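Good morning C.,

I know you're traveling, so I'll keep this short. The sequence:
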Amino acid sequence: MNFRPGIPRYMQIADAIRRDLKNQGERIPSEHTLCAKFRVSRPTVRQALDVLVQEGRLYRHAGRGTFATAVDGNDRRLRVIGSIDDMMALSDETWFKLIAREMAPVPANIAQALRLPPGSSGYRICGVRHADTGPFQHVTVWLPPAVGLALSDEDLSKTSLLAAIERHLNVSIKFLEQRVDAALAPRSVAELLQLRPRSPLLLFERTYFGPSGEPVEYALTYQTGRRYPYRVSLARAERRS
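The C-alpha coordinates, ready to paste straight into the viewer:
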Protein backbone atom coordinates (compact mmCIF):
# COMPACT_ATOMS: atom_id res chain seq x y z
CA MET A 1 0.00 0.00 0.00
CA ASN A 2 1.31 3.44 -0.90
CA PHE A 3 0.54 5.73 2.02
CA ARG A 4 -0.48 9.30 1.26
CA PRO A 5 1.44 12.02 3.12
CA GLY A 6 -0.38 14.16 5.65
CA ILE A 7 -2.94 11.49 6.66
CA PRO A 8 -2.28 9.16 9.62
CA ARG A 9 -1.45 5.68 8.42
CA TYR A 10 -4.01 4.03 10.69
CA MET A 11 -6.76 6.11 9.06
CA GLN A 12 -5.63 5.03 5.59
CA ILE A 13 -5.55 1.40 6.72
CA ALA A 14 -9.05 1.77 8.18
CA ASP A 15 -10.21 3.14 4.80
CA ALA A 16 -8.67 0.16 2.98
CA ILE A 17 -10.27 -2.40 5.32
CA ARG A 18 -13.61 -0.58 5.11
CA ARG A 19 -13.57 -0.77 1.31
CA ASP A 20 -12.90 -4.53 1.46
CA LEU A 21 -15.82 -5.32 3.78
CA LYS A 22 -18.45 -7.31 1.92
CA ASN A 23 -20.52 -9.62 4.09
CA GLN A 24 -22.01 -9.35 7.55
CA GLY A 25 -20.25 -11.83 9.83
CA GLU A 26 -17.13 -11.91 7.66
CA ARG A 27 -14.05 -12.58 9.76
CA ILE A 28 -11.29 -9.99 9.46
CA PRO A 29 -7.68 -11.20 9.02
CA SER A 30 -5.63 -11.37 12.18
CA GLU A 31 -3.59 -8.41 13.39
CA HIS A 32 -0.41 -10.29 12.44
CA THR A 33 -1.69 -10.77 8.88
CA LEU A 34 -2.72 -7.12 8.60
CA CYS A 35 0.69 -5.98 9.89
CA ALA A 36 2.36 -7.97 7.13
CA LYS A 37 -0.09 -6.77 4.49
CA PHE A 38 0.28 -3.07 5.26
CA ARG A 39 3.88 -3.26 6.55
CA VAL A 40 3.13 -1.42 9.77
CA SER A 41 3.37 -2.17 13.48
CA ARG A 42 0.67 -3.87 15.52
CA PRO A 43 -0.31 -0.67 17.42
CA THR A 44 -1.02 1.01 14.06
CA VAL A 45 -3.23 -1.90 12.97
CA ARG A 46 -5.06 -1.85 16.30
CA GLN A 47 -5.74 1.89 15.90
CA ALA A 48 -7.23 1.20 12.47
CA LEU A 49 -9.44 -1.59 13.80
CA ASP A 50 -10.52 0.57 16.75
CA VAL A 51 -11.76 3.21 14.29
CA LEU A 52 -13.91 0.64 12.51
CA VAL A 53 -15.21 -0.83 15.76
CA GLN A 54 -16.28 2.64 16.94
CA GLU A 55 -17.94 3.26 13.58
CA GLY A 56 -19.88 0.03 14.01
CA ARG A 57 -18.37 -1.59 10.92
CA LEU A 58 -16.56 -4.26 12.99
CA TYR A 59 -17.14 -5.99 16.30
CA ARG A 60 -14.78 -8.07 18.43
CA HIS A 61 -15.64 -11.46 19.89
CA ALA A 62 -13.24 -12.50 22.65
CA GLY A 63 -11.30 -15.63 21.72
CA ARG A 64 -12.69 -15.77 18.18
CA GLY A 65 -11.56 -12.66 16.34
CA THR A 66 -12.93 -9.53 14.70
CA PHE A 67 -15.95 -9.62 12.41
CA ALA A 68 -17.88 -7.35 10.05
CA THR A 69 -21.28 -6.00 11.06
CA ALA A 70 -23.99 -4.87 8.66
CA VAL A 71 -22.76 -2.52 5.93
CA ASP A 72 -25.13 0.29 6.86
CA GLY A 73 -23.24 2.25 9.48
CA ASN A 74 -26.33 4.34 10.24
CA ASP A 75 -28.27 1.39 11.64
CA ARG A 76 -29.11 2.22 15.28
CA ARG A 77 -29.31 -1.37 16.45
CA LEU A 78 -27.02 -2.07 19.34
CA ARG A 79 -24.68 -4.40 17.46
CA VAL A 80 -23.96 -1.60 14.99
CA ILE A 81 -22.98 0.68 17.86
CA GLY A 82 -20.28 -1.93 18.35
CA SER A 83 -20.70 -2.31 22.09
CA ILE A 84 -23.00 -5.27 22.68
CA ASP A 85 -20.38 -7.89 21.84
CA ASP A 86 -17.72 -6.07 23.84
CA MET A 87 -20.06 -5.92 26.85
CA MET A 88 -20.95 -9.59 26.63
CA ALA A 89 -17.29 -10.50 26.09
CA LEU A 90 -16.48 -9.05 29.50
CA SER A 91 -17.85 -12.25 31.03
CA ASP A 92 -15.17 -14.22 29.18
CA GLU A 93 -12.36 -11.99 30.41
CA THR A 94 -13.57 -11.00 33.90
CA TRP A 95 -15.75 -12.16 36.76
CA PHE A 96 -18.64 -10.56 38.62
CA LYS A 97 -18.90 -10.49 42.42
CA LEU A 98 -22.53 -10.24 43.44
CA ILE A 99 -23.23 -7.93 46.37
CA ALA A 100 -27.03 -7.79 46.45
CA ARG A 101 -30.07 -8.94 44.49
CA GLU A 102 -33.52 -8.03 45.77
CA MET A 103 -36.88 -6.48 45.09
CA ALA A 104 -36.80 -2.83 46.14
CA PRO A 105 -38.62 0.47 45.55
CA VAL A 106 -37.46 1.99 42.25
CA PRO A 107 -36.18 5.60 42.31
CA ALA A 108 -38.47 7.91 40.36
CA ASN A 109 -36.04 8.64 37.51
CA ILE A 110 -35.30 4.95 37.00
CA ALA A 111 -38.99 4.03 37.12
CA GLN A 112 -39.52 6.56 34.35
CA ALA A 113 -36.66 5.05 32.30
CA LEU A 114 -38.17 1.56 32.71
CA ARG A 115 -41.71 2.88 32.11
CA LEU A 116 -42.91 1.67 35.49
CA PRO A 117 -45.64 3.46 37.48
CA PRO A 118 -44.42 5.83 40.22
CA GLY A 119 -43.85 4.02 43.49
CA SER A 120 -43.22 0.68 41.76
CA SER A 121 -40.86 -1.99 43.00
CA GLY A 122 -38.22 -3.46 40.74
CA TYR A 123 -35.51 -6.08 40.84
CA ARG A 124 -32.14 -4.62 41.84
CA ILE A 125 -28.77 -6.31 41.25
CA CYS A 126 -25.58 -4.77 42.60
CA GLY A 127 -22.03 -6.02 42.21
CA VAL A 128 -18.43 -5.41 41.20
CA ARG A 129 -16.71 -6.70 38.08
CA HIS A 130 -13.11 -7.84 38.51
CA ALA A 131 -10.25 -8.33 36.06
CA ASP A 132 -6.92 -10.01 36.74
CA THR A 133 -5.63 -6.63 37.96
CA GLY A 134 -8.47 -6.15 40.43
CA PRO A 135 -11.94 -4.55 40.56
CA PHE A 136 -12.64 -1.98 37.86
CA GLN A 137 -16.43 -1.62 37.57
CA HIS A 138 -19.24 -1.08 40.08
CA VAL A 139 -22.64 -1.92 38.63
CA THR A 140 -26.18 -1.36 39.86
CA VAL A 141 -28.86 -2.82 37.59
CA TRP A 142 -32.62 -2.34 37.81
CA LEU A 143 -34.97 -4.72 36.01
CA PRO A 144 -38.74 -4.81 35.59
CA PRO A 145 -40.11 -7.27 38.18
CA ALA A 146 -40.98 -10.00 35.66
CA VAL A 147 -37.50 -9.87 34.10
CA GLY A 148 -35.74 -9.84 37.46
CA LEU A 149 -37.69 -12.73 38.94
CA ALA A 150 -37.01 -14.84 35.83
CA LEU A 151 -33.29 -14.41 36.51
CA SER A 152 -33.42 -14.71 40.31
CA ASP A 153 -31.50 -18.01 40.34
CA GLU A 154 -29.02 -17.14 37.58
CA ASP A 155 -25.32 -17.45 38.42
CA LEU A 156 -23.98 -14.08 37.25
CA SER A 157 -20.33 -14.62 38.17
CA LYS A 158 -19.25 -15.68 34.66
CA THR A 159 -21.99 -14.38 32.40
CA SER A 160 -23.30 -10.99 31.40
CA LEU A 161 -26.78 -9.96 32.45
CA LEU A 162 -27.52 -9.03 28.84
CA ALA A 163 -26.71 -12.56 27.72
CA ALA A 164 -28.81 -14.01 30.54
CA ILE A 165 -31.82 -11.91 29.50
CA GLU A 166 -31.51 -13.02 25.89
CA ARG A 167 -30.96 -16.66 26.85
CA HIS A 168 -33.73 -17.10 29.41
CA LEU A 169 -36.39 -14.72 28.14
CA ASN A 170 -35.75 -15.10 24.43
CA VAL A 171 -35.61 -11.31 24.21
CA SER A 172 -33.10 -9.78 21.82
CA ILE A 173 -31.47 -6.56 23.01
CA LYS A 174 -31.86 -4.21 20.05
CA PHE A 175 -30.53 -0.83 21.14
CA LEU A 176 -29.57 1.30 24.10
CA GLU A 177 -29.70 4.88 25.27
CA GLN A 178 -26.55 5.96 27.07
CA ARG A 179 -25.41 8.94 29.08
CA VAL A 180 -21.75 9.28 30.05
CA ASP A 181 -20.44 11.66 32.68
CA ALA A 182 -17.43 12.21 34.89
CA ALA A 183 -18.04 11.56 38.59
CA LEU A 184 -16.25 11.39 41.91
CA ALA A 185 -16.44 7.96 43.51
CA PRO A 186 -18.87 7.76 46.46
CA ARG A 187 -17.22 6.31 49.54
CA SER A 188 -19.05 2.97 49.28
CA VAL A 189 -18.10 2.58 45.60
CA ALA A 190 -14.50 3.66 46.21
CA GLU A 191 -14.04 1.02 48.91
CA LEU A 192 -15.26 -1.77 46.64
CA LEU A 193 -13.07 -0.57 43.75
CA GLN A 194 -10.08 -0.19 46.11
CA LEU A 195 -9.79 3.54 45.43
CA ARG A 196 -9.58 6.69 47.50
CA PRO A 197 -12.98 8.30 48.09
CA ARG A 198 -13.82 10.94 45.48
CA SER A 199 -11.44 9.41 42.92
CA PRO A 200 -12.44 10.42 39.37
CA LEU A 201 -14.45 7.77 37.52
CA LEU A 202 -16.56 7.44 34.41
CA LEU A 203 -20.27 7.15 35.13
CA PHE A 204 -22.47 5.36 32.60
CA GLU A 205 -26.27 5.39 32.66
CA ARG A 206 -27.66 2.93 30.13
CA THR A 207 -31.19 1.81 29.30
CA TYR A 208 -31.48 -1.30 27.12
CA PHE A 209 -34.47 -1.97 24.89
CA GLY A 210 -36.01 -5.09 23.37
CA PRO A 211 -37.35 -5.70 19.85
CA SER A 212 -40.53 -3.67 20.32
CA GLY A 213 -38.81 -0.78 22.05
CA GLU A 214 -39.67 -1.99 25.55
CA PRO A 215 -37.06 -1.21 28.25
CA VAL A 216 -35.64 -4.40 29.79
CA GLU A 217 -32.72 -3.12 31.86
CA TYR A 218 -31.39 0.07 33.43
CA ALA A 219 -27.73 0.04 34.49
CA LEU A 220 -25.74 2.57 36.49
CA THR A 221 -22.02 1.85 36.19
CA TYR A 222 -18.99 3.47 37.79
CA GLN A 223 -15.86 2.50 35.86
CA THR A 224 -12.14 3.05 36.20
CA GLY A 225 -9.96 3.44 33.13
CA ARG A 226 -7.26 1.03 34.23
CA ARG A 227 -8.45 -1.99 32.28
CA TYR A 228 -11.22 -0.86 29.94
CA PRO A 229 -10.77 2.82 29.07
CA TYR A 230 -13.72 4.41 27.30
CA ARG A 231 -12.74 5.67 23.87
CA VAL A 232 -14.71 7.20 21.02
CA SER A 233 -13.43 7.91 17.51
CA LEU A 234 -15.11 10.64 15.49
CA ALA A 235 -14.71 11.05 11.75
CA ARG A 236 -15.98 13.64 9.33
CA ALA A 237 -18.47 12.24 6.83
CA GLU A 238 -17.34 12.26 3.23
CA ARG A 239 -18.84 15.11 1.25
CA ARG A 240 -20.90 14.21 -1.74
CA SER A 241 -20.05 16.06 -4.93
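Safe travels,
E.
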